[in-house]
Each structure stands twice: as C-alpha cells, then as structure tokens.
# Entry
Amino acid sequence: MSARQYTHFIDGRFDASADAHVERKAPATGEIVARFASGQIGDMDRAVAAARAAFDKGPWPSMSGMERAEILNKYADLVRANFDRLVRIEVEEVGKPIRFARGDISGVVGLIRYAASLALQMAGTTYTNLGAGKTAMIMREPVGVVGLITPWNFPALILSQKVPFALAAGCTVVVKPSEFTSGSALELAALATEAGVPAGVFNVVTGKGSVVGQHLTEHPGIDFISFTGSTQVGQTVIEASARNVVKTSMELGGKAANIVFADADLDAAVDGALMGVFFNNGECCVSGSRLFVETSIADEFIKRVAQRSAQLKVGNPFDEDTDIGAMIDEKHFNKVLEFVRSGVDEGATLLTGGAAAKSGSGHFVEATIFDHVAPSMTIFKEEIFGPVLSVTRFDTVDEVIELANSSIYGLSNYVWSKNIDTVLTVTKRLKSGWVQANTIIDGAPQLPLSGVKGSGFGYEMGQAGFEEFTQLKTLFIHTGPRQPVFAR
Ligand code: TXE
# Structure
C-alpha cells in the first residue's frame, strides 16, 4: 500500500507541490500512510487571502440560502459516495476501530444536511412596535472569514461540527487540521468544491500548530477563530486573537462524571460505563472517565464493569470486532501509561488492565479500571484521553454533585436513574454544557455542544452553533415626519 500524498488545498485546488512534508505513521502499524505538506507562514497567508477575496468579492455570501443549501446537500451526497474511502483514512490516521469511524462519517453526512437546512432559515427580526414612523430590522449576516483549528481524535467529525455551519451562514473558511490526521480535511475540502462550493471558500493548510496554526490565530485577515483542542493551546489562541480583537469559540478538554444511581437500569448502565470510557479509544473530550456508583450497588456493579472490560478486544482497528484501537502516537501512549502508574502510586485499586496491550507494532493500551479513586488523585483530576476509568463510590446526591463539579472542566456529564426527579434535580445542579440521562455520548446535529469553566465557551452544532458563524446588524429606519431635536 502506498502512502497518500497531499498538498495544501487553497483557492479551490490542491497546490502543485510542497517543499516539505509531515509524515503520518499509522498508530496501529507504524507504517507511513500519508504525507502532508508542512505549511509555512506564506502558505497560510495565501489561504487567508483566498478566503478573504471569496468573502469580500465572491458569490458565496450573497448567494441565496436555497443555492447554498443545494450545494451543501450535493456535498453530503459526495461524502456518502466516498464513504469507505473516508472511513479508511480515519482508521489509518487515527487508529480508531472501524465501526466508530463509520459512525463518524455517517455523522458528517448528517451534520452537512442539517447545516444545509439552516441556510434556508437564516433570518433576523423586525420591530414595528417602536412608535410612529419607527421600524427596526435586526439583520443576520455571516461573520466573515473563519479560522478553524481542529484536533486529531475525530478529524472529519469535529471539522464538520464547524465547517458546514460556517458555509451555510455564507462564511469562508481556512482550516488548520491536526498535523497527525489531516487527510480527511483535505478530502472534504475537495469534495465540497466538486459539489459547487466556489474557489476560496473552503481552504485547508496543513502543518505544525506552532507555525501555521499560530499564524492563523494572529492573522489580521480573520474575523472569527473556532478552536477545538487542549485547554493549554486554547489559552494561547485566545491571547493571540486578543491582539486583533477577534471573536473566538473554544471547545477544550473534559473530565465528565458518569453517575449511576441504585435505581438505574443496571444492564444499560454497565454498557454505558464501557461506552463512556472506551469509545474512540478513550480519546474523546466527552468521555465519561469518572464513574460514580451509589454505594449500595457498587460492589456488584463495578465487578460487572471490570469483567466486561477484561473481555474487550484491543488491537487492529480494521477488525470488525475490535473495541479499542491504537493510541494516536507513542508520546500520547506513554502519557496514558504514566497516568496509569500515577494511579497505582497514589493508592487507587487497579481492577483490570493497566499495561500496554500486545498487538503488532502499534501503541495499544489495555482497557484499564481503577476502583477507590479519591478526588485528590491525579487520575481523578486530569484528562487522560485514553482507555482508563476511575471509579468512586457515593452515598448522597449532595456528595456526588460536589465531586462531579469539583473538576476544572465542565463539558459533559451523565446520569443513570429511572427516577425523573433524580434526573432533573441532578441535571440542574451539574456544571456542564451537556448532560445526558440513561444514555451516553449520544447526540444529533440539532443539539448544541458547549463547555463551561475550563472546557471553553461558544456553541457547536444546533441553531446556536450556526449562529456562532453569524453576526447581527441593526437598522433603525424612520419614515414620515420626524420631530426635530434641536429646534432652534
Ligand atoms: O492538542 P493541541 P493535541 C487534549 C487531550 C490531548 C491533549 C493534546 O488531553 O492529550 O489535548 O492533544 C493546533 N496555535 N485534547 O496535542 O495541541 C494543533 O496543530 C494554534 C482535547 O492534539 O491542543 C491542532 O491542530 N494552533 C481535544 C490543534 O491545535 C495550535 C481534542 C489541537 O492541538 C497551536 C484533542 C498554536 N500555538 C486533544 N499549537 C478535545 N477537546 O476533544 C497547536 N495547535
């Protein structure tokens, strides 16, 4: 199998060649699967100039919503037609199990179709009740040229929580995907262009975050930066954008609580505990990586979760029955194992896993569960981003709410109980943008995702996510005779 060769996608086409490349080794095999152009400042300048011209002069922002929706729907059709190819790229570059990669690309199609429907509904408000001769229109307009920075864990899906919504609003975009997993972003830009998105509207520049990512965030040609990634880099992006007074949206890390009450459907909750932490190799910002179990059911429940975890299949992500694939790279693999060591050293009880899983030459970690995890422990506090679950027991609602909310993060939380009173009471007291009850890491394009506290701000998906890519302009009109203010 030969490695895919990519160049930047700027102004409606791939560059003819690249001076330097970043090589991507499949985390599951160590084999080189792709080479991406290693972008420089000048490449980012070209992409921003193309996006700026396409916004200021091009047809895209002034096209009717119907025209943009038609093109976006055609783009969704092309993603569907290239489904297997896109799935393969995600599995190879990320190391995620193929069944989850299929879910990602189906999700991409759904996000584009939903965003297309929003292009038809982009509207403002009119006031006619302001007094004689007074009318006001609050017009909704595209925010402009958007810089989008995306991470490696869901390369196509997270990009599609942003780009189709920006395009539906009439914005033009410059995407800087993760240097590990840039393949699907480039393929999606080419498919959107094939569908009829005009040149310059959807640009992708690949390369290092510290070079092209940083330059994008500091660029005066950008009107809005939408970032998903680590809290640390998010902070540098906010600082850089402050210099040009540019709006930002931040989707950062998480450390969700997955709370199981004694009256829950325990079969469903056991599966939910596994899904919460092992979905996407645990490399997921909405992972339910802190499991809280009510003491009266804890021993039996935790035993079941541990038994099921020990049976999970870790290995080749292309195998249909693989549950956990490879960690994104060796550095991250070592970081995850370092967290596991800290759990042992700080006195948590290792129930299952806890070591590298042996499978070919890739970087695999066993499904790992720690019981009796105290709030002071590192594994309770830090986002591990791997298949490592920490379990803590609780007795009262007050106690579990305090534990859940003690995190610096506030992205998502989960509750399992058949009692609607418990579900609503707990939901209202949890500090996070997302709560799910009796399900986990579920969603739909209509539902916004947002963080509070260290997890960031701004919305993705849903009507609110669409509106992030718009701004309001208020027109106040006076008709008929106007009473003079300075009569003398
Ligand atoms: O993220 P980074 P990484 C967390 C997770 C993970 C850790 C590091 O805990 O272990 O972050 O992952 C670009 N200016 N999440 O290293 O570094 C970079 O090239 C502008 C949570 O991948 O934040 C990439 O495109 N951009 C997260 C993007 O930022 C810069 C998902 C994210 O990279 C830049 C992924 C700079 N100075 C990791 N430096 C989630 N919320 O899902 C880097 N980048």
